[in-house]
Every structure is written in C-alpha cells, then in structure tokens.
C-alpha cells in the first residue's frame, strides 16, 4: 500500500491545479463580458424595447356578413316567332337596350294577308246564306200557322238557321285568328332589357318551334345577385327581416378592390343546403351604371348591424397565448402590461373590444413578440387613434400620427364616400 501513496499524491496535485485553472478561467470570462457590455453603441439587456403603438378610440363599427355570389337577371326571355315564315327584316342591333313593345323583326305577312281575304269572303257568303235561311224561316212560320205545311219542315228550317249562325261565327273567328297572325308577323320585345347576339339572319325561314329563337333579352335594370352565407349567420339576418328592416348589400369585384353597386336584401331561400351548410339569399340592385352583368362573379357584404360607441383597436394589437386573448397596454411609466381583452365583431383591420381596453389607452401593434409583462418600451413612431375611419387627429399632438405611420389599413365610414379601388374586408 505504501508504494502506491506517491501516485495518490500526484493525482491530488493534478486535481487541485485543474480546479484552480477553471476558477481563473471563469473569472476572466466574466470580466471580459462586463468589458464587452460597456462597449459604446451596444444595448444592454435592460434597454427599452422599440415598439409601434396605436391609441384605442371609441367609435361606431358596422357589422358585415361576407358571401360569394353570382349576378342573375330578374328576367331572361328568348324571343321566338309565333308564326312560320320568312324572316324579312331584323330591326335591332346586337347589344342594344330595348323597351317592352319595341319592334325587333318582321316575318313575311303576305301569306296571312291572303288567308285574311279568303276568310272575309267566306264570311260574306255564309252571312248571305244565313239571311236567306231566316227569310225562309219566317215564311214557314206563316205557312204552318195556315196549316199549309207540316210543322216538321218548320223545325228543320229553324235548325238550318242555327247551323248558318254557327258557320258565320266560325268565319268571324277565322278572321280574328288571321288578323292575330298578321300581328305576330311583327316580332316585338316582351320586356325591357339588353339584347344579346342575333341568332337568326334575315332571309331564313323561321318556325314557332325553333329551339334557338331570334335573340335573347336580359333584364339588367334592376338586377339580382344570389349569394350564400353560413347557416350560423342566418338568425340575425332573419331577425332583421322579420322587423321589416331593409338590409344594405354591397357588391364588390372578384379582387375585392372595387365596389360595383349597392342594393338591398330581397329575400332568403326556404331551405339550407345540407352539403355545404349554407343558405342562399337574393339581393336586388338598381344597376343604373350597369356595373353588374349576368353570370358575373361578385363578393357580397351584407350589413347586419352597427355597434355604437365601442372601443376600437387594430387587429394587429391582439395577441393570443396561454392566458388567452390579450393586448400589451403601454403605461405612463413606459412599461407594458399584458391586459386580457374580450373581443367583439371585427371589420377590416380593426376589431371591437367589449372589455379590457379603454379609449385613449395605447396598445402595441408591432414588436409585441419581444415583450413580456412589465417590459420597458420606447415608441419608434408616432401613434394615432384606431377606428373604423382610421383617421388621425389633425392637431399634431405628440404621440399621435396618421394610420400611414402605423401601417394600419383604413376604411371610410358609411356616408363619407369610399373611393373606388379601396376594399373594405369583412370576416366570413
């Protein structure tokens, strides 16, 4: 055992020397880190976090339902000829607007004029026969009274008069029918609307049984849009309709950038589609400028309600995490507090807050991912109030700026006029 004791001493010395070297290395590293942290231009760990903030404000918010729709004409008619004959004249231009009763085309009337002359001749002949039969009837009545002829002959003459009366009525009906055919030789528009492409050229023989017809008329003023909404969104719509309210509807283009027309909700379908869980609605638009075209795809916004005097903040300020839905509120000492909020309806880039934020408080809209409760912040840009209009105050007060500085999209309020090309987006 004694011969191994020197090795134990050597091992112990090595362990002591290693521990001493480690302590020296750790101390020198700490000293170097302290020196580095004091380098000019480097932010210490406790430096304020730069953020962008917006001031919450109280305003009204319109609640919209969004849906996809297709423009549908209220009436579409394929114009057919009611008589057979040669198409002699086409008196319309493709695509023109016509009014009900306008002359569109003419069919050769000469065959029907000849039929009318023939029918009128038949009427004259049969009326003469009727008059003669009536004269004979009066004679037979006198002779029967004198007992000169049998009563049977008188009865036969009575029925002959009735027969001629029937023939005369038939002739008159035939004349009226031919006159009607002559009227049908002039093809007129059954309703007001826009004409489509011509389907038959002049000179062709047309028939009442032709499938294509002459032209298609589509009513475009007013015009309808059929769109769908989720079945869960139907109760508030029905509640408004049952009170007799007129719900406003806006139609937007496919890219949701330009408002095409404004109208009102007409009706709701009587059943829900079980395969999609949606229900169809029909809205009517005056379409005075003809921005809506049949079979056009449009995006629909249905105004269901307006929330008055609610607190509005940008949707970018809303954070979600383990505590739930919250926002970072900037306190007077330039620190932030994670404030739980209860959200209401949203519209575009703004959302209503029913609980948790008061008007006038500043909420962080950018840089929240680097924050925690109690962190110190500094504003990198001026802040402005949020709201449906997104308009900043014009007094130039410190700490406030236009929505352009905060990066928030604006939406004009109802009645202020929305410029073309600006899209007000709504949640489904």
Can you walk through the features of this model?
The protein contains five helices and 22 strands. Helix 2 runs antiparallel to helix 3. Strand 12 (248-252) and strand 13 form a beta hairpin. It has 428 residues and is of the alpha+beta class. The strands form four sheets. Strands 1, 16, 17, 18, 21 and 22 form a six-stranded mixed β-sheet that branches. Helix content is 27%, strand content 33%.
Give descriptors for this structure.
428 residues; six-stranded mixed beta sheet; disordered C terminus; single chain; 27% helix; six-stranded antiparallel beta barrel; rod-shaped; alpha+beta
Q: Which percent range fits the helix content?
A: 25-40%
Strand and helix order: HEEEEEEHHEEEEEHEEEEEEEEEEEH
Q: Catalogue the unreliable spans.
A: 31-44, 387-428
Radius of gyration equals 45 Å
Q: How many angstroms does the end-to-end distance come to?
A: 87 Å
Strand content: 25-35%
Indicate the structural class.
Answer: alpha+beta
How confident is the prediction overall: mean pLDDT? 82
Biggest sheet character: 6 strands, mixed
Count of individual beta strands:
22
| Principal-axes shape call | rod-shaped
Total number of helices: 5
